[in-house]
Write a structure and sequence with these properties.
There is one protein chain. The two termini are 48 Å apart. The strands form four sheets. Strands 10-11-12-9-13-14-15 form a seven-stranded mixed sheet. Strands 4-3-7-8 form a four-stranded antiparallel sheet, with no helix packed on it. A two-stranded antiparallel ribbon has the order 1-2. Helix 1 packs antiparallel against helix 9. By secondary structure, it is an alpha/beta fold. It folds into three domains: 3-174, no CATH class; 185-253, no CATH class; 259-497, P-loop containing nucleotide triphosphate hydrolases (Rossmann fold, 3-Layer(aba) Sandwich), CATH 3.40.50.300. It contains 19 helices and 15 strands.
């Protein structure tokens, strides 16, 4: 149970029991003088309610002011106290469909549940099975005065607390939503590639819960059905450290409540996509360090170990792969999650049974199209490409364009606003660099070597196209330039920070 429930329920039940017990003491135990002195405070309800038992005393042959009658009333009071302390009173679990405890004021049918608190010894005995429920049933008349008074007090206090808690939830939820929309906006799964407002979280006991925010389950904290406390605000970044779960595929993910920026890679086999990606992350990490930004690399594909081995990177596997991602954070910059989708060039070869990879290209903030200039020159001089005729930059772009427009439902006249970077790779090779640098621009190079269609398709499909020349191995630290351009096009604060 979270601290809010424990404190508020304890206070309400304590006030109700205090009044009931003191009223009973003043009306049945203390002498007449004290009763008269206290009648306006404690006896105005207790005396009339106990008076309703007079026919019962006559029926069982007991005097109203006898020790036996008092003992029976004490037993009734004890069972009311048992009802307050019983499991049914403190059971705020959400059930299998909602594995989180509720705020006691916002539990389903909370008003009726509150009324039942003094009577819950009946429910408790029934649930115990081995104890005859007839015992508390027989004592119902003697519980009646105390339970009724307790109910009246609880109703008044419950109404006050409900109003206060409802207002508190609305204020906290609004503040949390505004902060989340400012810093994060949405989350994305590196496994299934789909985005969503917020992920689910997994408690340490294994229960999967909806994302904890200020709501009917708590304002500052939630509690799972097993009683484990979970933060429901991100003060000091504590909520962002929870174990996250994708609500679509159920895969474990890390979000840090950081704004995701998704970059998808396109290109033919051997065009240098993966090597460029690893070099770019290495260069961005170094630049970020110089700017006082911490880089937190999560996935192995762009890790420090991968950066050390970038000269021997294996070809990207075919099929749908997990995204690579890392985080950038600093004291004066909301954390950013950089997600990179690297797809094998084989997937861009013409094929009648091609996978569309819908989620790769439905949710992205920038696209990098890698071109191997050596392949372009070989094709221009009618040399047979060693990788096969299907593996050409133009074929890869046409295949991608078909997928992209079909997935997003774009017509022929529609231009995507997603930044599109055309990158000539392998500028760390002298022969290639000389041929490319001999032309005024990368676009001029493509036009000269019979790949003007690449330029034309890109310009017709995307409204924001930019050309780059990079050393894939990162020798000139320019492998990061197309990535930085896409980041700057999507986040002005990050752009200024990385200047």
């Amino acid at each position: 149970m979270n601290n809010t429930n424990r404190a508020l329920m304890g206070t309400l039940i304590g006030i109700a029991l205090f009044y009931v017990i003191i009223s009973f003491i003043f009306t049945r135990v203390l002498d007449v003088g004290v009763k008269i002195f206290s009648i306006s405070i404690f006896s105005f309800a207790m005396d009339p309610l106990i008076g309703l038992l007079d026919p019962l005393w006559t029926l069982i042959g007991v005097e109203n002011d006898s020790l036996t009658a008092t003992a029976l009333l004490v037993l009734g009071l004890v069972f009311v106290i048992v009802g307050f302390a019983s499991k049914p009173t403190w059971d705020l679990k959400g059930g299998e469909d909602d594995p989180q405890e509720y705020l006691f004021t916002h539990r389903p049918k909370a008003f009726l549940w509150c009324l039942m608190m003094p009577w819950n010894s009946l429910t408790w005995f029934w649930q115990m099975k081995k104890v005859p429920v007839i015992i508390p049933i027989i004592l119902i008349p003697f519980m009646f005065p105390f339970a009724v008074i307790a109910d009246v007090i609880l109703i008044v206090l419950f109404a006050i607390v409900w109003v206060a808690m409802t207002a508190g939830i609305k204020m906290a939820a609004k503040k949390d939503r505004e902060q989340y929309e400012k810093d994060t906006q949405y989350a994305i799964c590196p496994k299934c590639k789909r985005n969503f407002d917020r992920p689910n979280v997994k408690c340490k006991c294994g229960l999967v819960l909806s994302y904890p925010v200020p709501n009917e389950h708590g304002i500052k904290t939630h509690a799972c059905n097993n009683g484990h406390i979970i933060p429901s605000t991100n003060k000091d970044g504590i909520r962002a450290k929870l174990q996250m779960v994708c609500p679509h595929c159920g895969g474990g993910i890390i979000t840090h409540e950081a704004k995701p920026i998704v970059i998808s890679m396109v290109g033919s086999v051997g065009s240098g996509k993966t090597t460029m990606m690893v070099s770019a992350v290495e260069s961005i990490s170094a630049l970020a360090k110089d700017r006082g930004i911490v880089t937190d690399v999560i996935t192995d594909g762009v890790s420090v170990n991968a950066q050390r081995k970038k000269t021997n990177i294996m070809p990207t596997k075919t099929g749908e792969l997990d995204s690579q991602y890392f985080f950038l954070r600093s004291r004066d910059l909301p954390e950013k999650q950089i997600v990179i989708n690297d797809i094998s060039g084989i997937e861009f070869q013409p094929d009648n049974e091609k996978n569309l990879f819908e989620e790769y290209y439905r949710y992205n903030d920038g696209i990098i199209f890698a071109i191997d200039p050596l392949e372009v020159m070989a094709l221009h001089h009618s040399q047979s490409p060693t990788k096969g005729s299907k593996n050409t930059p133009l074929a890869a772009l046409e295949s991608f364009y078909h997928m992209y427009t079909e997935i997003n439902g774009y017509g022929p006249a529609v231009k995507s606003s997603v930044p599109f970077a055309i990158v000539l790779t392998r500028m760390d090779e002298t022969k290639i660099k000389a041929a490319v640098d001999a032309e005024a621009t990368p676009a001029a190079f493509l036009n000269k070597y019979s790949h003007g269609m690449v330029v034309d398709i890109a310009q017709s499909a995307f409204a924001n196209v930019k050309y780059f020349k990079v050393a894939s191995l990162g020798n000139d630290n320019n492998a990061m330039e197309p990535f930085l351009w896409i980041l700057s096009e999507n986040d002005e604060d990050l752009k200024n920070k990385l200047k």
